[in-house]
Specification:
The chain is of the alpha/beta class. The protein is built from 9 helices and 11 strands. The longest helix is centred in the middle third of the chain and has 21 residues. The model has no long low-confidence stretch (mean pLDDT 97).
């Protein structure tokens, strides 16, 4: 049975209880280390975006993360647990729902992808299925694409990275770059909307595509891209909690808000 769509307050309670938001498992030390790496120009943490020299101050990155993700904004707080504001999570889901509603109304071409199949695959697959049922075209990934010594696979309408017959967690933008390069070569148009996470989302946004991205509190690049209006929406959440089923109420809320339930 599909999960019934929760109310806003019910979803917030669920996010806190399952630690998708609220007091999350990601430690403060890990967050600050990633913010520092991004500010120091480590491209791995840029997630396919070109941030130039605009975010070279770790404190500027922290300020954006406090505003858009809900981490503790105190630079003196260096160790312990960090947070994601569930109100910001739900507000971002509402903004994402508007893009999904428009995509359905316009019968858009939509590309869905994840670098976190262990946590978000079912969420993305259900989103893709709902959009397809509403008349959208879910982009078929061209066959035979390779990246990072693996291949680009697609299951249930969701593009992922596969290596050694296993779906891998990846932050790399390379698989998305391969898709976006291959589509015109196959005579296919680029997508009108991309729904993704990690480097898949960053790469798509950098290509100028409307993109909904999901990001954890230790992945600041997508939040910076949203602040710069390169990324359309960034949804803050812990992207790998104890069970993928914990994301079901979030998915139900999003699809209901978009008129796709």
């Amino acid at each position: 049975m599909p999960t019934a769509a929760p109310s806003r307050s019910e979803l917030i309670e669920h996010l806190i209880r399952t630690r998708i938001a609220g007091d999350v498992a990601t430690p403060r030390e890990n967050n600050l280390a990633h913010y520092r790496e991004l500010a120091n120009g480590n491209r791995y943490y840029w997630l396919g975006l070109d941030l130039g020299d605009r975010w070279t101050d770790e404190q500027d990155v922290l300020a954006v993360m406090a505003e858009r993700c809900g981490v503790d904004g105190d630079p003196a707080y260096r160790q312990g647990q960090d947070t994601i504001d569930p109100e910001l999570t739900v507000a971002a889901l509402d903004r994402a729902a508007e893009l999904l509603r428009k995509a359905a109304a316009d019968r858009q071409r939509v590309l869905v992808a994840t670098g976190h199949p262990g946590g978000l695959l079912d969420h993305h697959a259900r989103t893709a299925a709902a959009l397809r049922a509403a008349g959208c075209e879910i982009v078929d990934v061209p066959l035979g694409l390779s990246a990072d010594e693996g291949v680009v696979a697609q299951f249930a309408g969701v593009a992922m990275y596969e290596r050694g017959s296993t779906l891998w967690h990846t932050h790399s933008p390379a698989p998305m770059a391969e898709i976006l390069a291959a589509l015109p070569q196959e005579g296919e148009e680029l997508p009108d909307l991309v729904i993704a996470d990690h480097g898949w989302a960053g790469c798509a946004a950098q290509h100028g595509l409307d993109t909904i991205g999901y990001a954890d509190c230790n992945d600041p690049a997508l939040f910076l891209a949203e602040a710069e209006e390169t990324l359309s929406v960034c949804v803050p959440l812990d992207d790998y909690v104890a069970s993928p089923r914990y994301y079901d109420p979030l998915t139900a809320y999003l699809l209901h808000a978009a008129g796709l339930a």
